[in-house]
């Protein structure tokens, strides 16, 4: 199975699937179909049925149960890589029996002092980039892990398993592809996204999320005669930002801390705009952060005796924990599988979003599992083939029926 996972992973990462945050279509790039079409052939070889690829580049398939179990379990991974760093012409670098030392690539060095987890990978087979692109382990490692599970059941037909549903989806990196997913047609009791880090990690807590756009309208007067008349929109924007709690900026937060992140600002004397994202695991604190924005708007408008500032806040997604704890079969099954591998499950909150959160609120409880990937979204990305195999084995144990 290990050789199969490596062979498939190397094939998948060489297929360019960068998504685009400038497109308004799903998929955002047609080249995501290139990987989907390759996966169709691989799924056919492994005996899956009901293989469907729709116009949104969502690929689904079924491995029928070979026992009397009525349980249906889903496994998902996304096909796209980030738009912010090149995923074109990926040249994976396979290092067998890694010695734990610095890894020197073309133009960068992956330092074992900076990335201390490398010591845990000593002796393993690891795959890196050549230093000029992302590797695409996020989330092609997840795809290869799922394919490894399917390969096992294809070559061990006597091993009893539940009905397995798989899905490979587009545009996760820009947060849009999963909106097109049809949970009813997927028809599962619960599912897992395979899109995390270490094999023993389980993620079922993520941020509640919102976006905020704050707009300022100034009064542009010639600076030579501006006294008592000018309202400089750019300066008012700076003043507004200073009214938000300083300790809730992302550079001062970690763990379960929420934050208000100023992503972008534009401004002149006449007009200015601030773009924020708002995040918190706790719903009450999340709502309190949104109230802080409203309070700052009221302060600005009262101070300048004018409708200088306006605010738009739109919720993006919510913490899936609130729903998963009401039906935690998916968590119990993952915990048992990880323990059966001799590992200790670790629950890690996601400081971000996940397709699983949106699927959970669409009616399908979907926590997130590891892939064996590290340092995603840049040239330092790498993954451990040994950990990828471990993930496949965990997925096998989740789907097996005694």
The number of helical runs is 10
> Which residue ranges are poorly predicted, with pLDDT under 50 across at least 5 consecutive positions?
none
The whole-number mean of residue pLDDT values reads 95
Give the overall shape. globular
Walk across the major sheet and give the strand order: 1-2-8-3-9-16-10-15
Sheet having the most strands: 8 strands, mixed
**H/E element sequence:** HHEEEEEEEHEHEEEHEEHEHHEHEEEH
Q: How large is the radius of gyration?
A: 24 Å
State the helical fraction: 25-40%
Beta percentage is 15-25%
By secondary-structure content and strand pairing, the structural class works out as alpha+beta
Distance between the termini: 21 Å
Please give the number of β-strands: 18
Secondary structure layout:
Blueprint: H1 2-13, H2 32-45, E1 49-53, E2 59-63, E3 72-78, E4 93-95, E5 103-104, E6 109-110, E7 126-128, H3 137-155, E8 163-169, H4 183-186, E9 190-194, E10 201-203, E11 208-217, H5 233-243, E12 259-267, E13 271-280, H6 283-304, E14 309-317, H7 321-324, H8 329-340, E15 346-347, H9 355-361, E16 368-369, E17 373-374, E18 382-384, H10 385-399
Parallel strand pairs: 3-8, 3-9, 9-16, 10-15
Antiparallel strand pairs: 1-2, 2-8, 4-7, 5-6, 7-18, 10-16, 11-13, 11-14, 12-13, 17-18
